[in-house]
Amino acid sequence: MPELPEVEVIIRHLHKKLVNRTIKGIKVFYEPIVQNIARFNQMLNQTFLDVQRKGKYLLFFLSDDWALVGHLRMEGKLYLKPQKDCLKTGKHEYFRLLLDNDMVLQYYDFRKFGRFLLFKKDRYLEESKLERLALDPFLINAKTFYERLQKTRVVIKKVLLNQQIISGIGNIYANEILFAARLHPETKATYLNFAQTQLILTKAQFILKESIVLGGTTISTFDALGQTGSFQNKLLVHGKDKQNCVVCQNKIEKRKIGGRGSYFCSHCQPMITKKD
DNA sequence: TTTTAGACCTGTTTGC
DNA sequence: TGCAAACAGGTCTAAA
Beta carbon of A113 within 7 Å of strand C? Predict the structure, then answer.
């Protein structure tokens, strides 16, 4: 599922292909994805001025001061193809934008979880609630992150998935980051000292950066040439339950933490049971 | 104010 | 082999 690296890869690609392109046609096949078709249609004849990422959100800034805020959630995928290659509506295709160069931006999402909402630029942060979103591991201040950790009663795994504390990390990378930092996912966040907090950020930056270089973990295709991420080959614990730990050869365990499948090595990631 | 649980979804996996 | 139930997971909302 798209987390920070996958969204970053998509954004970099779309930025090259969309900026200065004008939307000449809009088709919505499943209204809940855009929530309000009439509003979504306001994008007609608007030009893409910029494409950015904030956490796992995609931001498209358009002329006439519109901002399209998108989130791919679990399975959302964007494809950019020549119009002649997408004459038929695809299964699970929920909207498409026809561009002035006869390319089509298609949105597919078989779980229908993704959302693409249009706001006026001066109010989009407030109305989309993006103002609540924390900074991502590349931008967040270590001291701010540490102070936030000291204020919560939940375990570190849940903290890493809380987008209001730190953004961009999803379940896959949370598992990998905690393994890299040798921290048990059920360690209470308040038990971590400043050095351990810094280590989480350092490992997060390293892992996310490497994944971006490798094109992410989600298999995504954005244009006719296609692009496939390969970070899935670098995963050390996620999805590896009952397999041997690459460090100590003990079995990787799987446990539900906060409703999410969590993978860890209890030998390499010992539980911290009291404050340092 | 913080935390938790349920809802939203459907393809895939598992169990009978 | 075929069917049904469980599972996967990011975010939002309501309830505790």
Answer: yes
